[in-house]
Specification:
Blueprint (H helix, E strand, L loop, with lengths): L2 H5 L6 H9 L10 H4 L11 H8 L13 E6 L20 H11 L2 E6 L11 H11 L17 H12 L14 H4 L35 H12 L7 H5 L24 E12 L6 E9 L4 E2 L4 E3 L4 H5 L16 E6 L6 E10 L4 H9 L5 H15 L3 E10 H6 L7 H4 L16 H11 L4 E3 L14 H7 L3 E10 L7 H12 L10 E12 L7 E2 L17 E4 L16 E10 L14 E8 L11 E2 L7 E2 L2 E2 L14 E5 L9 E9 L15 E10 L1 E2 L2 E2 L2 E6 L29 E11 L19 H10 L18 H5 L6 H11 L2 H9 L1 H18 L13 H21 L4 H18 L5 H21 L4 H15 L4 H4 L10 H7 L20 H6 L1 H15 L3 H20 L6 H10 L2 H8 L33 H8 L6 H17 L2 H8 L4 H17 L5 H10 L7 H9 L5 H10 L44 H26 L5 H17 L4 H18 L9 H12 L4 H22 L3 H15 L7 H17 L8 H24 L4 H14 L4 H17 L3 H19 L33 H18 L2 H17 ...
Parallel strand pairs: 7-14, 13-14, 29-30
Antiparallel strand pairs: 1-2, 3-7, 3-12, 4-5, 4-6, 4-8, 8-9, 9-11, 10-11, 11-12, 15-20, 15-26, 16-19, 16-21, 17-18, 21-22, 23-24, 25-26, 27-28, 27-30, 28-33, 30-31, 31-32, 32-33
């Protein structure tokens, strides 16, 4: 958005504006501005005319051309045979009319700028669309991220191989069977070695790179790589980036004035073939027009036609003596300016006035047998009333259905017709409107195409505009019409009917239907129309035979009048009669019922003054002096639809007026002789309307009163709303007549609203076209001898020969007051007029051949200098008062100087630019808040620099006569050594540079200054200015040669130092949506490329604000452009002597460039486009709010605190969708031949462009990296350069790269491996290199995979050469593979298997090392890697099975028990998986195990892993008896980090006591390190944990446990296995049932999965072999009594547990349930391999024990359980009355007390009765009942103290229940054992009866 639009509403309140600027924290301020813009720093521009030839020469392709502009005469094109001219004598017309006609008939004098198309000011959306279309023709870039899921790995590999290795043998391409897809479930938990049977030698490999073994010098390899990189490159880099630029920021866009041409839209040709009613007895008259039902507007004038036969035509011979050929037309061309599905073609049918319409249509509707009588009546009416018409019928056809040609619905009436007839009959009894509506859906009747081709496509799915040009001709047959209701004649009534047709669901009103036939043919209008007539009846060229019926063009009525200049003479007036009200009319002679209005155009007041300017309708004279409206029988207040077309005279004056005479028509003949009958019509009233009012046409709606008598003399000069004395008016002068006048004229003034035709700079499209094409600049009359310079004195002194541009400049300079203000407000008009006059002056004076310094006189150049100074001062003076004016003035001045560069002395114009800059800089440095002024200055320079010869004006080096070397020496490449010079300017912007390359020096200086300001808007604007220039260079065909582009790039080399200095401010959030693989050590040095502090932190430190994402991305792409086109020698010289720190910063910058243009993938780009995200930041919108007074200091402060950085979008295609802006640019989209749709939005999703852009940026940056490395070779920084380059390449390889780019990246990587030597396998780089290479070895694309395998082999080979072994590489590759396959989702094990085979093939084919042990070592490594891969290959198969996946990861981690790094990696992977599933407890356990592993390696506290034994008993698993040397990564800091992370996960899991144990290990470490900040944090966390324990006391819930057993062959090795599953808290048995059943049902099929819901022992032999059985049982933690005494709290009984119990009821006879005396219980105790919680959520059962309880033991257990519940409820503090009552009610309530009593009766009654001796168990049960009774009493006592008064009755009821219970229980529990029964006390569980 241009700043002008942002400021446009702020005029009028200077105080508010200043107040706003003072508070614009979000927009930014200019603190430090005065220091960065120094007046003493103003560089003198070069004298261009003096130095250009010396520095560049005529032969230089970049030199300024000599023939830049030309004054040409463009012939005016007309479509008619001759110019359309008025019939009147033009000498009587006004001067204005004569000038208009002269303008419409003269040729154009146009200034032609031959190279203007190369200017940024002329670069529009259309050219952008063409540029993008051209770029899309490039071969597509293939990215792995875009690979379709349906594309198999092998297909993609073959595709890539076919592209990249066509010349190499394809023997290794055969397919390998996918192990993961063919393996079955029985291989899930196989041992590690079981995969070794797969022989890699039977696998396929990728093609080998033939040059890997060639012995060439490194310099030659680098040269080969460079040549390959430069092949098939995209030259238009910024063309790929152009769609992402904001077109609203393109202030330099100045829409060129288009040549005036006639308004045309989509044209259709309608030919009328037949019109007749079923009863053909009289002539019919039809009119046709277009209507828009939605807009409720008529879209065209009427086309009148009739198809009457000769005999019916003769019935009117008495009234129509002859018919001119133009009125016999039966074809018309309709122009549709705004196509819409709501457009209808409406046909109205009229007949001769006869009487009541209801009576007239009866013979047509009914089968009237007396046709002759009807014909006689019609003949009589034609003879008597032949010149009057009455409405009869109407019909309508939808434009949309004309295009679709649908005819899908068959009607019953069609069956009666012949199959070859194209008609649609209607039944008169049916609803006519309903039929019409159906017809609108079917285009009424049947439709046939020419050639019998039917088209049934639905046109709504296509663009109407395109369809209107391409649809096939169609014949439409309408077989019935609707009767015209006399009370529904107005257009408003018609729109209601049309709306009902569009809405088939509405209920239409009943309309009568008249049988008849209308057949028309509709087709696209051809380019040439034979015998065509314009709306003025002028003949179109070419015109054929004069005796052939012509085809009329119908004048369109656009819904919105397009702002375009008039093209030819036209002067038409349409009079639309609306309504008449003569209800109040009274007269002795008769009434006024059958009313018609006679309309006449009068040039005087006599009847002889009636002009024959009224267009005839059909079959009548071409013009007439009068026209009559239709008549409604016996209607005193008719509403009419008549439209009368009038040709206005050219000499229109005050005496011209419309005279309306109201007539009563006598319809019925009186019984007298015809010769005695009075006149048919009787005047009943008069009114008139003067056509001119205040010099303008009287258009619009008018309500006029009616005079009862003929108007008096001189009436025509007075409007009828004036009550003339002595006149008689109908109904007391009330307005009784409604009429509308619509003029279509190009010579008579009208009221027009022209505000909507301004472009972004406020330039009026009409005025711009007028200046460029139509205005005639006055010039002195010179003879041939006078031509030359200087001009003759007579020319200069003669007042009548003033030169326009000189006079404008002089008068503008001396103007003051209102005149000056008007000139400033319309500055662009005056400036463009001056430029047009100056160019014409150059040619008519011959000055165009003179040197530029001598072209204009000195007094004129002085005036121009003064004018520029004054305009600049006006901008400075009013920028805070009227921002709209100052922005327009600033841009107009810039465009004026832009144009002067093509006309005047260019050195002089440079001085004007310098003067502007000096004035602006002085003001900026003197005020604190001058954001608009700085923005104006940037916009000014951006406009000036958009000149088509900007490069020539900058005097690029390398083109002088002395040769390239000398020229280049005069403009040396800037050094990047120092960050900035003392004056704040970038080091490369030396005074010499800025003086010679003046414009680019100004631009880069302003960029440097803007980047230091605290205004994100100014930063964005400055960067945008540079970017727009670079984009224009890429689009400039003149700069296509690379040598020329390099010379241009040399102008921008200081940009390298500028961006380097601004590096801390750059946005770094481009990777927010993409996770870069974290390499070990984060790539060493590269890990510190970016400061740890945020950009906001940098801002606080150095006072510079951070850039937002848009500014950063644009600035970086500018840098990429410079790196792409800069000459290699210049770039090498710039970086050759950089110190290491500066070199390091340069590599970080290049990495950020990679980052900013990372390709996100087609899917992500399309997703962002669909979301229609406007921008990554809203800074500019906030600026507008602030400037327009919509912001506040508070909101500004808040927004400033947030910073200016915005989010990044996808692939550079982020965030900017939409972009049409609010204001419509002036353009003609309706011009024939130029009727083009608007170009796509700049932010339109273009994944193909984003892919090309990312690839080209990567290639450019890769080439730059190679150049830097080679430039530093041999110097002290060579090693640092190689290391930095390696880091950049490795990070780039982690991003999405195209297959073509990857090949070159791997070539560079191999070169860097060779140059770095041992450093490449160091701990700093080795893990990262190996991991990146392995990641690409697992890529599905064959080409990149082959290169990655080659690079991996080259790494091994290089390090074997250096030390005869590569053990370190072996370890790093193994570790990298292990960590990679567990986390990467895009990893393909099949691809890695091919890559490993390729590495093996390299080792076998490497002849140089065949005699060493290297091939065997490679073979061992490859097979070891294959073993690891085989262990992890199953993980992908079980990605959706979390338990199985974690089992696999757990097994792999166990396999690395003696490799701490690898085990730690896998433990971290497991923790990550748990976190994804919100299993925080298990994630914490994984981290605790990792900490135990580290502690064991460090022997922390002298105890190792035992340190964490209190956290989890499983920690001892990490003990390592044979301790190796500690790994460098496993430090005390690593231990702290793991424990802190574990504590946070345990806190999230609610295990607060465990957090305490973890911190017990951490606290001593922190105390030892005296880290008091960490200690404070730890204790705050502990405080929080203990507080949570206290708060949640009694309310905590922990996990649920279930025993799960698997049976069936479908489970493979899982069959027969038994696990304990830990589920989330409160998980119920049906939930885990459902989860497992659904999961395995999806895997095996729902019909093959059976859930066993009981807990009985399963006999596998009884199960179906083809089913999968799952037995699930709820289990509880099991503790021995001594354990329960130690585990007091709920937490302690749910942590570190490994024994679980579930109970199964049974009876001796095998039933599950029986009587109390028979009911036994089997307790099964399961012991798991590890304690819960553990590394995974399921642990295998390793031991099981069963305990059989006899019936009495079951009873004892039940009573003891109730005792425990009573005891807990009674002792609870504070007491819970509700819980206590629930427990008591459950024990002694009336409904349940039978339970305990029944137990006592069954087991104690026999003892009490003496029938059974007492035993230890009966005694135990007796004591339990006594305790139970005591606990019930205690509970009732406590409840009595808790209850309220209303619960006392309830308490008494409970006490009564207890008394009854105790009374019945007393005899049973009071029993004493007899002495004879003592021997039986030992009896108990020894009884074998109940043991299973």
């Amino acid at each position: 958005m241009t700043l002008g639009r942002k400021y446009q509403n702020s005029s009028g309140n200077a105080g508010e504006s200043r107040k706003v600027y003072a508070n614009q924290s979000k927009v930014g301020t200019l603190s430090g501005c005065s220091s960065s813009i120094s007046l003493s720093d103003m560089i003198e521009p070069p004298d261009y005319e003096e130095v250009c030839d010396r520095l560049m020469g005529d032969q230089d392709p970049l030199a300024y051309p000599t023939n830049d502009i030309e004054l040409v005469t463009v012939p005016r094109r007309i479509r008619t045979l001759t110019h359309i001219l008025p019939d009147e004598d033009l000498s009587k017309a006004s001067m204005f009319v004569r000038d208009c006609i002269s303008c419409y008939t003269s040729d154009y004098t146009v200034v032609e700028y031959k190279y203007r198309t190369y200017s940024g000011s002329a670069y529009g959306r259309e050219r952008l669309a063409e540029r993008i279309e051209r770029l899309l023709q490039a071969p597509p870039q293939v990215y792995e991220v875009d690979a379709e899921q349906s594309t198999s790995t092998e297909e993609l590999a073959l595709q890539q191989l076919s592209l990249q290795f066509e010349s190499q043998p394809s023997s290794g391409r055969q397919s390998v069977a996918s192990i993961s897809s063919s393996s079955s479930c029985n291989e899930t938990l196989t041992p590690r070695g079981s995969w070794a049977s797969l022989d890699l030698r039977s696998s396929s490999s990728d093609p080998l790179l033939p040059d890997l073994f060639e012995k060439k010098p490194q310099e030659q390899i680098d040269a080969i790589n460079e040549a390959r990189r430069l092949e098939s490159r995209q030259s238009d880099l910024l063309g790929l980036y152009a769609p992402y630029l904001d077109e609203e920021d393109a202030v330099e866009r100045r829409l060129a004035a288009e040549m005036p041409c006639e308004l045309m839209g989509r044209r259709i040709l309608v030919v009328c073939h037949q019109l007749k009613l079923e009863l053909d007895v009289e002539p019919l008259f039809a009119s046709m027009a277009l209507y828009d039902a939605k807009e409720k507007k008529k879209l065209s004038e009427n086309f009148y036609f009739n198809l009457n036969s000769e005999c019916t035509r003769q019935m009117l011979s008495a009234h129509i003596p002859h018919a001119d050929l133009s009125t016999l037309s039966r074809s018309a061309v309709f122009d549709i300016l705004n196509p819409s599905p709501d457009i209808f073609l409406v046909v109205r049918v009229e007949k001769v006035l006869q009487g009541d319409v209801n009576e007239c249509i009866e013979p047509y509707i009914k089968d009237d047998k007396n046709r002759e009588k009807v014909r006689a009546s019609a003949q009589a009416a034609c003879t008597r009333l032949g010149k009057f018409r009455m409405p009869l019928a109407w019909s309508a056809v939808s434009l949309l259905n004309i295009l679709s040609g649908s005819n899908s619905l068959e009607r019953e009436s069609d069956k009666d017709n012949n199959s070859n007839t194209n008609s649609l009959d209607r039944k008169a009894s049916s609803s006519s409107l309903e039929q019409l509506r159906r017809r609108a859906g079917e285009v009424g009747g049947s439709l046939t195409r020419k050639g019998s081709v039917e088209r049934r496509a639905n046109a709504q799915d296509h663009d109407l505009s395109n369809t209107l040009d391409t649809f096939k001709p169609i014949v439409i047959t309408v077989t019935s019409f609707f009767k015209q209701e006399t009370d529904k004649l107005r257009d408003e009534d018609l729109y209601k009917f049309l709306a009902e047709i569009k809405r088939p669901s509405s209920a239409p009103k009943k309309l009568k239907c008249i049988p008849g036939t209308l057949k028309i043919e509709v087709s696209p209008c051809p380019e040439e129309i034979k015998n065509g007539l314009t709306p003025e009846l002028a003949k179109l060229a070419p015109y054929g035979d004069d005796n052939v019926r012509p085809c009329k063009e119908i004048l369109p009525f656009p819904t919105v009048v397009p702002a375009q200049p008039h093209h030819h003479y036209r002067s038409l007036l349409y009079v639309c009669v609306r309504d008449i009200n003569l209800a109040a009319y009274t007269s002795r002679t008769g009434s006024a019922r059958n009313i018609t209005v006679r309309v006449q155009l009068m040039s005087g007041e006599d009847q002889s003054a009636a002009l024959p300017n009224i267009f005839g309708r059909s079959s009548c004279p071409e013009f007439s002096t009068e026209a009559y409206t239709t008549v409604l029988y016996h209607n005193k207040s008719p509403s009419l639809y008549d439209e009368i077309k009038i040709k206005l005279p050219a000499d229109l004056g005050d005496h011209h007026h419309l005279l309306f005479t109201f007539l009563h028509v006598a319809c019925q003949r009186k019984p007298v002789a015809p010769e005695q009958e009075k006149n048919v019509e009787t005047p009943v009233g008069y009114t008139w309307l003067p056509l001119c009012r205040n010099g303008k046409l009287s258009c619009g709606e008018h309500a006029l009163p009616l005079m009862a008598e003929a108007p008096p003399d001189n009436y025509s000069y007075i409007f009828p709303d004036v009550l003339l004395p002595g006149t008689r008016w109908i109904d007391n002068h009330r307005p009784l007549f409604g009429v509308a006048l619509d003029a279509c004229t190009t010579v008579h003034p009208q009221n027009m609203n022209e505000c909507a035709t301004c472009d972004a700079h406020g330039r009026s499209g009409l005025l711009s076209t007028y200046i460029q094409y139509q205005c005639r600049v006055p010039r002195p009359a010179l003879s041939d001898t006078d031509v030359g310079l200087p001009l003759p004195p007579s020319v200069m002194t003669d007042g009548s020969c003033k030169i326009l541009h000189e006079e404008i400049a002089l008068q503008w300079v001396v103007a003051s007051g209102v005149t000056r203000d008007l000139a400033m407000s319309n500055s662009w008009t005056l400036f463009e007029l001056m430029v047009k006059s100056m160019v014409e002056y150059l040619y008519w004076s011959g000055a165009h051949e003179a040197p530029r310094k001598a072209r204009f006189p000195e007094h004129f150049t002085d005036d121009v200098s003064t004018l520029v100074t004054n305009v600049t001062a006006e901008i400075i003076a009013k920028y805070g008062k009227n921002s709209r004016l100052t922005q327009s003035l600033n841009n107009s001045l810039a465009f004026f100087l832009f144009d002067l560069l093509s006309i005047m002395d260019r050195g002089y114009v440079f001085n004007l630019i310098r003067g502007y800059h000096k004035q602006m800089s002085a003001k900026i440095s003197s005020v604190p808040d001058a954001v608009p002024l700085v923005h104006y200055k940037l916009s000014f320079l951006r406009i000036v620099c958009s000149h088509e010869h900007y490069v020539s004006l900058c005097l690029p080096a390398g083109g002088g006569a002395g040769g390239g070397a000398g020229a280049r020496a005069s403009s040396p490449a800037p050094s990047l050594r120092s960050s900035a010079s003392s004056d704040g300017r970038a080091a490369g912007l030396s005074p010499d540079f800025r003086s010679r390359h003046y414009l680019v020096g100004l631009l880069l200086s302003d960029l440097t200054a803007a980047l230091e300001l605290q205004s994100p808007v100014l930063q964005c604007a400055a960067v945008g200015a540079v970017l727009s220039l670079l984009a224009a260079h890429d689009a400039d065909a003149r700069l296509a040669p690379a040598a020329l582009r390099a010379r241009v790039a040399a102008l921008y080399l200081p940009l390298l130092a500028i961006v380097l200095d601004a590096q801390p401010q750059l946005y770094r959030g481009f990777d927010a949506s993409k996770e870069i693989i974290q390499l070990d050590g984060d790539l060493g040095q590269l890990g510190s490329l970016y400061p740890a502090s945020s950009p906001e932190g940098d801002f606080k430190q150095n006072g510079r604000p951070p850039f937002n994402s848009e500014t950063s991305r644009n600035l970086l792409v500018c840098l990429v452009w410079v790196l792409k086109w800069a000459e290699r020698a210049a770039l090498s010289a710039a970086v050759a002597d950089l110190p290491p720190a500066r070199l390091h910063a340069l590599f970080a910058l290049i990495d950020l460039c990679f980052n900013s243009q990372d390709y996100k993938g087609r899917k992500e780009i399309m997703k962002c486009a669909q979301q229609n995200v406007r921008k990554t930041t809203d800074i500019k919108a906030k600026l507008e709010d602030v400037i327009l007074g919509q912001g506040s200091a508070r909101s500004d402060f808040i927004m400033r605190r947030k910073g200016g950085a915005g989010g990044a979008g996808a692939g550079g295609a982020s965030g900017r969708a939409g972009g049409a802006g609010g204001r419509e640019r002036w353009r003609k989209e309706w011009v024939r031949g130029g009727s083009r749709s608007r170009a796509a939005s700049p932010a339109r999703a273009q994944p193909a462009l984003a892919a090309q852009l990312a690839a080209e940026v990567s290639m450019t940056l890769l080439h730059a990296v190679e150049t830097i490395v080679q430039s530093c070779s041999g110097s002290d920084t060579a090693q640092a350069a190689c290391s930095g380059a390696l880091g950049v390449v490795l990070r780039a390889l982690q991003r999405n790269q195209s297959a073509a780019v990857l090949h070159h990246m791997f070539a560079t990587l191999r070169s860097l491996i060779h140059k770095l030597g041992w450093s490449c396998c160091s701990e700093e780089w080795g893990p990262g290199v190996c991991r990146v290479l392995l990641r690409h070895c697992g890529a599905p694309a064959g080409g990149p995979r082959a290169h990655a395998a080659a690079a991996l082999y080259a790494l091994m080979r290089q390090h074997y050469h250096l030390g005869n072994n590569f053990s370190r590489i072996k370890m790093q590759v193994t570790m990298s593979l292990s960590s990679l396959v567990g986390t990467s989702t895009t990893f393909s094990e099949e691809s890695l298997r091919r890559a490993l085979k390729t590495v093996l093939m390299y080792a076998e084919h490497d002849q140089d090392l065949q005699d060493t042990g290297f091939p065997e070592q490679v073979k061992d490594l490859v097979f070891n890697l294959h073993m690891i891969l085989s262990d992890t290959v199953k993980m992908k198969e079980f990605q959706e099975d979390p338990e199985m996946l974690l089992d696999l990861m757990y097994r792999i981690a166990r396999g690395y028990q003696h490799s701490p790094d690898l085990r730690l990696t896998w433990l971290n992977n497991m923790a990550q998986k748990h976190m994804e599933r919100s299993n925080h407890l298990e994630a914490g356990m994984c981290l605790v195990h990792g900490a135990a592993l580290v502690a064991e390696q460090l022997r922390a506290g002298g105890r190792g892993a035992a340190l964490l034994e209190k956290v989890t008993h499983n920690a001892l698993d990490e003990s390592c008896p044979d301790l190796q040397l500690p790994h460098h990564h496993l430090t005390c800091q690593e231990l702290q980090a793991l424990l802190e992370h574990a504590a946070s996960e345990l806190m999230a899991a609610g295990m607060y006591e465990t957090v305490n144990e973890v911190y017990k290990v951490l606290i001593p470490i922190a105390e030892e390190n005296r880290d008091y900040k960490k200690l404070a944090n730890i204790h705050s966390k502990l405080s929080e944990a203990f507080s949570r324990v206290e708060q949640l006391h009694g309310k905590r819930v922990f996990g649920s446990y279930f025993r799960v057993s698997f049976y069936g062959a479908r489970f493979g090795d899982l069959s027969g296995e038994e696990f304990v599953y830990k589920e989330h808290a409160l998980t119920k048995l049906p939930e885990i049932f459902s989860r497992l059943e659904n999961f395995y049902g999806q895997r095996f099929g729902p019909e093959n999965v059976v859930i066993i819901k009981d807990s009985n022992v399963v006999d596998p032999s009884t199960l179906a072999a083809d089913k999968a059985y799952i037995q699930i049982t709820y289990v509880e933690p099991y503790f021995e009594p001594h354990e329960l005494r130690a585990r007091v709290t709920h937490y302690e009984r749910n942590f570190n547990i490994k024994r679980f119990m579930y109970a199964t009821p049974f009876t001796a006879d095998g039933r599950a349930h029986g009587a109390l005396g028979e009911q036994c219980k089997r307790k099964t105790i399961l012991t798991t391999a590890h304690h819960f919680p553990y590394l995974k959520t399921r642990i295998q059962v390793v031991h099981r024990t069963q305990i059989i309880l006899s019936p009495i033991e079951v009873a004892i257990e039940d009573i003891q359980k109730k005792i425990s519940e009573l005891s807990a409820a009674t002792s609870q503090e504070p007491a819970d009355a509700k819980m206590l009552q629930m427990v008591v009610q459950g024990c002694i309530g009336t409904t349940v007390n039978q339970g305990p009593l029944e137990l006592a009766q069954v087991f104690l009654a026999p003892v009490a009765e003496g029938t059974q001796p007492p035993t230890r168990l009966t005694n135990k049960l007796r004591l339990a009942f006594k305790d139970f009774s005591k606990k019930c009493q205690d509970a009732l006592k406590k409840n009595k103290n808790l209850i309220s008064s209303e619960q006392r009755e309830y308490q008494r009821e409970l006490e009564r229940n207890l008394q009854r219970f105790t009374a019945r229980l007393e005899p049973l529990v009071a029993l004493r054992p007899l002495a004879s029964h003592v021997a039986h006390l030992a009896n108990g569980v020894s009884n074998r009866t109940y043991q299973a």
